Input
Amino acid sequence: MSPDESEILSELVKYYDALAPYYDAKYSHPTIHHMRTIERQLIDRYLDASIKRVLDLGCGTGLHTVQLAQYGREVVGIDISPEMIRLAQRRVEDAGLSDRVRFVVSEIDNIPSAIGEQFDAAISMFGALNHIPDLSFTLQNVARALRSGAPLIFTVANAERILSRTQSSNGWIQLRVGTRGLRLWTRVWTRRDIETALIDSGYDVVRAGGIFSLIRPVYSGHVVVNRNSPFNRILMWLERRLAWNTRLARRAEYLIFVARRV
Output
């Protein structure tokens, strides 16, 4: 089954507006912290001192927005959820970074019309791009907002892993969440799909890898696991060391991409 675009957007806003007050608590489990650590390391490694202006696509509650601004960069955070943006603004204000950050409530597809500026880099973390109907169209729009040579870093759910346990003929999955009748459409792609879309949209693929190939993410901060378990620490350490291993990436829950605007 394929959703129409209006259905995707309306359900997306409802879901994330409802989730916003609980978002940070829901995704506070040590396994998610492990993923966030890898994302932060990617930002530190590929966004050097020449990067002054950054787009944070699907910025959520502003976790990475604050990280980017703390290094003195100007940041524009884009999210489709007004409630997520409200919480992100509060996080930025609490960090004393309001003069460096601006937020826009918008679909990621509408980047040029929403901000009308050029940037030195863009990021999109924790699967924000899994909620768009047309990956190539979105990547082309992002490319128009980036200067030549600008890096694009993102993490997305991996079709090869997700579809191995979920039936879908076209990559779309509908999730029913909680008891309020909320639904969420998610679109997953394979590594090859994404690499093709990047190249066709005006990017060079710098690196591709994966997260959660050795451990499974836990999407609830209320599930108790021993954060200091030696076995868990070893697996997380191995994942960080082997994140770019092609064979392991095929079984990863999330794919990591570093690309560069041609």
Summary: The chain has a mean pLDDT of 90. Strands lie at 53-57, 74-79, 101-105, 121-124, 151-157, 172-177, 182-187, 203-211, 254-261. The chain has eleven helices and nine strands. The domain at 13-158+190-261 is CATH 3.40.50.150 (Rossmann fold).
